[in-house]
Amino acid sequence: MMTKVKYQGLVSDLLPNIKLMQAAGHFLFNYHDENAGMSTILRKIYSSTHAFLISIHFVLMVINMAKYADEVNELTANTITILFFLHTIIKMLFFAVNSKSFYSHPLFTESDARYHQLALTKMRRLLYFICVMTVVSLICWVTLTFFGESVRLISSKDTNETLTEEIPRLPLKAWYPFDAMSGSMYIFAFVFQIYWLLFSTSISNFMDVMFCSWLIFACEQLQHLKGIMKPLMELSASLDTYRPNTAELFRASSTEKSEKVPDPVDIDIRGIYSTQQDFGMTLRGAGGRLQTFGENNNPNNLTQKQEMLARSAIKYWVERHKHVVRLVGSIGDTYGTALLFHMLVSTITLTLLAYQATKSSSVMEAAYSCQWYDGSEEAKTFVQIVCQQCQKALSISGAKFFTVSLDLFASVLGAVVTYFMVLVQLK
């Protein structure tokens, strides 16, 4: 019998994204309404089937890249495509191996309604935007298949020339053990590639959306703490006459229960927090009151309830900040390795894309290798100009902050390896 499970906290905020990740084939077996034995087995079969099909087609694309590696431009184009979809393979395997860490995070007992709504709105907008762009990207990718010639570049070993070879008009270049040029095999390959594009991009994008949603929630919590900082400082300033008992102030008693203050207070700080019992704190004795050193009335004219609320507000801020720090730390522990590989693969892709536009030295070598000495004076002058202009390699810069080159790639790769070793040592 299926029972409706009601989730709370961050899980309920991320539930639409969690459902989409489950539909895309991630190994995410929690947060289902039905958790019987057969249902769990069927979900594992569903996710394993998607993982197998996506991995198999990725291998076929790698085989195609290796088979036609003689022509540089063809090899570069296939390599960039492989690196682009390598994000999917990494994140799918990473989530399957590290799925338990995604199920745990610091529990926020209460959240300010305004900032919680802001975070939830941003999460939903991000999820809707990524869903729409994923579908639009798939449509554009498939549409571009029907424009231009469906050929690949190959190098002739006999004449050392670059020739063109007709290939199946498919969205992706992959090697198949059957003839996919026409007929039923072409239709099968075309439909399968559309499925593969949709699910591979969804697996990668939805996991990134979860990571960004965590960060959005953490940022809005920090905005909440920033918003209450000013009134909290004003409260603290009113207590400067006395020295609080800090030993009891920060002593949490999570096992005891206490009640809300039923009466309104003179100063309105109720918007700062929802209850004075956040995170299990109990206000009793000297821990909730100022030390008056025998005086009945303090010179700041603060009542006992105001003192208690001031102490509660201070502790609320400290405990909430500790929870945010723990949340950010858990995000880094959960997603840090995947983010490391994401940045590394993106750096390699960017380097390959830019390096194709910076190979001016090959132009100079080609100009010098031709029989320029048998030509006219005008031809010799032209070859000399080409060689002079191509001595300085072309470069592509990122907003004048860095120049894309193989040296940059080597330095970034070295830095990534160093950071990875540091993370390993820290663990």
UniProtKB/TrEMBL annotation:
- Please name the GO terms of the biological process aspect recorded for this protein, alphabetically: signal transduction
A Gene Ontology molecular function term for this protein is: odorant binding
UniProt key word Transmembrane: yes
Please report the record's description of how this protein sits within the membrane.
Answer: Multi-pass membrane protein
Instruction: Keywords in alphabetical order, please.
Output: Behavior, Cell membrane, Glycoprotein, Membrane, Olfaction, Receptor, Sensory transduction, Transducer, Transmembrane, Transmembrane helix
Which PANTHER family does the UniProt record give? ODORANT RECEPTOR, ODORANT RECEPTOR CORECEPTOR
The entry's protein name is Odorant receptor
The organism named in the record is: Operophtera brumata
